[in-house]
From TrEMBL:
Taxon lineage: Bacteria, Pseudomonadati, Pseudomonadota, Alphaproteobacteria, Hyphomicrobiales
Pfam families in UniProt: Glyoxalase_4 (PF13669)
Listed GO MF terms: metal ion binding; methylmalonyl-CoA epimerase activity
Enzyme class: isomerase
GO BP annotation list: L-methylmalonyl-CoA metabolic process
Keyword presence, Metal-binding: yes
The name this protein goes by in its record: methylmalonyl-CoA epimerase
Similarity annotation: Belongs to the methylmalonyl-CoA epimerase family.
Amino acid sequence: MLGRVNHVAIAVPDLAAATTAYRDTLGATVSAPQALPEHGVTVVFVELPNTKIELLQPLGTDSPIAAFLEKSPSGGMHHICYEVGDIFVARDQLIRGGARVLGNGQPKIGAHGKPVLFLHPKDFFGTLIELEQV
């Protein structure tokens, strides 16, 4: 079911500072910031040869990333995203296997314009998993 790692997401309290650190200190290529109000975040993607790093900053106090940063004020790894060929087939297989899909179970459109779902971290050893259809 799982394809390659699409990205690792890192919640950050200051997106501009994080972008500067990745671009200027580490020499990475970074995207322009992209606001995703339906997900409550602004994102920047750090392009790597084999995957991406997604830097997440909350859009408002009701963002799930704001809650994450309350617990970890300096930021940290938020989730890992795996690619799947068919998000509905993957979802149904996971539910049959006992995994919990967050939200209403219906995919949302993610930062790459593709359908995404999130899986409960308690079902995957404390790791929030995002699935993205490719």
